[in-house]
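Collaboration report, partner site 2.

Our partner group contributed sequences for two proteins of shared interest, and the home lab folded both. The records are reproduced in the order in which they were received, starting with the first partner submission.
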Amino acid sequence: MKQTRRQFVRTLFVATASTAAASSLLPRQLLASEAKSEALNFIIFGDWGRNGEQDQRDVAAQMAVAAQAMKPKFIVSVGDNFYEDGVAAVDDPQWQSSFENVYAAPSLQVPWQVILGNHDYHGNCDAQLEYAKTSKRWNMPARYFVQTLQVDAATTADFFYIDTTPMIKSYYSVLSGEKTRAKVITQDVPKQLVWFKAVLAASKAQWKIVIGHHPIYSGGGHGDTVELVDVILPLLQEHKVQAYFNGHDHDLQHLQAGALNFFCTGAGSQFRPTVNTPHTKFARACSGFTTVALAAEKMDVRMIDDQGRLLYSTSVPQRPA
């Protein structure tokens, strides 16, 4: 029954006329050319930690192939790193069964920039912070943080990693379950927002990219996140952020509102159906991941499924026409 449902869900997808009419095999030569360019290459995905289930391993295998070709400087996880209930401690067996043993390919042994998702809040979030102190690649210096990287001699990129789970009102309800509620009530959301406004205002980078777990706009099962539309979206627009990356909805999507691009890449293992919205440029219900080549004048984004097929490509300009 599970396989029949999965086969059915794989047939569900939406895409606008601007997307390719058919998928193509992973363009290794194209990705390899990006490795030779001055672009800042990285892979971004989320919602993955399922003890090495087949979908997770399929995505990991194709990530390894893409990474071998494009030579990413780092990998970003947009949260929900461990299902269903996060990790209990730094010696939790899931560190091996869901992370170390699954993403073991040499090409994936680069720094991982990691944020928390709502399922991580079911467990011990501090354990994920502590793991960063002993791991060579797991990087989570805080629940929210900023990373500044050089794209070329004249171009910098600021990556703003935010913790969206405590911003969602439904998690404070007893109906959400005490696992989550007990954790989010300890977080100071106003303090995080003060920090976020300050670092955005102080940024002099040509590229501003924000990464959170929950979507702002989405055609996935969770849909738009009202709290982020009300509080985060105006800040992104005010400070001319070019892109927001997220997970939570288990699919691959590109949405756009004005000059701001939204990329959902929460398909690291299981997936769910998605539909078109007024903002949709592309959406596909499948497992997969996203590659990014960030150059001075443009950001090339490619979405790839768990079989290595290139589903979608787009370029985001640094300055909108």
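Second partner submission, folded after the first:
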Amino acid sequence: MKRPGFQHFPEEAPKPLVWMSKKRGVDNSGGGQVWVTSDKWGPLKDQLLHMSYGQSKLYVVLKEEKNGQMQGGVSRIPIELSSSAMRARINPGDGQLYVSGLKGWQTNAKGRGGLDRIRYTGNRSIFPVH
């Protein structure tokens, strides 16, 4: 039965790329996503990054198509932020990532606010990218 004002969704609605567990401390409140467009980001160029406002973390989103269905996961980028993670942007001038943050409701941020510059140094990193 269709209720007035509500859209009826088919039984097989599009599936999300990845579920991020709140119970396991992966993310309890997303702070946005950004595509890495800079050549200065080495192996992460053209990858999607996810910011966790709630956990103050940065993730690379892994994606793969398998039998016509997209599937994915996330891998944490091992950095410590000055506050939560949200509203990230790649600066077209220097090609680096800038992440803003603040301490508020449902975040474990250590600082009241912050603006972090995150850059790829070229040093060896061990985490999946594909």
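Feedback sent to the partner group on the second submission included the following. The mean pLDDT is 88. Residues 54 and 70 are 26 Å apart (CA to CA).
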